[in-house]
């Protein structure tokens, strides 16, 4: 039996939002107000499509984007954590479920040589068009009222677990490591043997705390982390059990 580690990406693996980091490539490193104000809640991916079109219109090429993205810092302790998981892959399956996109995550993980740590990455599909413009699509369609239009992380997790079971792989415990409001849905899906690891001071921690206050706490246990070394300590204890 193995443990499954599920990671968010932005503000969890990397210490920034990869989608806003790319704005460093824009003229004067900022977006025009009209574009910035065009975002509608729940429709982030469509907004990023417009951002990428703007970058393309301004002659920003793939290699410049890639150079910029690979300067994004990892969260404190994350390099050590991913190294630790990589050394213990026989015990851990590891996936990313993220609102970023395939191109950004691929660039960042490969540049740091961490792509082998992850068994699968579930995120919005991105590609460069024949004219050199970066394009992005919604990950899937879903019917979850709690989640943004492009991605329900619970649906991704359920489908992954079902596929693994078909292959004869079950997990003794799922650990979900994230920070954002869109991580609450999958955390509420976790069972009592599982563990949610919200990043300290971020939206997910606050939402879990609010549920406990409303006397409808999440079923799984909760471990708040500020550095990924907190997660290493927990995983070391888990291995000893």
UniProtKB/TrEMBL annotation:
SUPFAM superfamilies: HAD-like. Gene3D superfamilies: HAD superfamily/HAD-like. Keywords: Hydrolase, Magnesium, Metal-binding. Substrate binds at residues 19, 99. It comes from the Eukaryota. It holds the Pfam family Put_Phosphatase. The active site is at residues 8, 10. Its cofactor is Mg(2+). The keyword Protease does not apply. GO terms for molecular function: metal ion binding; phosphatase activity. Mg(2+) binds at residues 8, 10, 179. NCBIfam families: DKMTPPase-SF, HAD-SF-IB. PANTHER family: PHOSPHATASE, ORPHAN 1, 2, PYRIDOXAL PHOSPHATE PHOSPHATASE PHOSPHO2. Belongs to the HAD-like hydrolase superfamily. PHOSPHO family. This is PHOP2 phosphatase. It comes from Thinocorus orbignyianus. The gene is Phospho2.
């Amino acid at each position: 039996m193995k443990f499954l580690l599920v990671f968010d990406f932005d503000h969890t693996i990397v210490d920034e939002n990869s989608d806003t980091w790319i704005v460093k490539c824009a003229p004067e490193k900022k977006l025009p107000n009209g574009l910035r104000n065009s975002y509608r809640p729940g429709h982030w991916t469509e907004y990023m499509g417009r951002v990428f079109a703007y970058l393309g219109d301004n002659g920003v090429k793939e290699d410049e984007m890639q150079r910029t993205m690979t300067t994004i810092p990892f969260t404190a302790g994350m390099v050590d954590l991913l190294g630790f998981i990589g050394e213990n892959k026989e015990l851990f399956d590891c996936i990313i479920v993220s609102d970023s996109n395939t191109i950004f995550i691929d660039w960042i993980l490969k540049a740091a040589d961490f792509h082998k740590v992850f068994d699968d990455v579930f995120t919005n599909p991105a590609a460069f068009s024949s004219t050199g413009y970066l394009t992005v699509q919604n990950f899937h369609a879903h019917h979850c009222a709690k989640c943004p239009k492009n991605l329900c992380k619970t649906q991704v997790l359920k489908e992954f677990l079902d596929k693994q079971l078909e292959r004869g792989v079950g997990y003794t415990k799922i650990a979900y490591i994230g920070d954002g409001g869109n991580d609450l849905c999958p955390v509420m899906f976790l069972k009592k043997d599982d563990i949610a690891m919200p990043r300290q001071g971020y939206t997910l921690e606050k939402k879990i705390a609010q549920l406990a206050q409303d006397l409808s706490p999440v079923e799984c246990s909760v471990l708040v982390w500020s550095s990924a070394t907190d997660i290493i300590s927990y995983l070391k204890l888990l291995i000893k059990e």
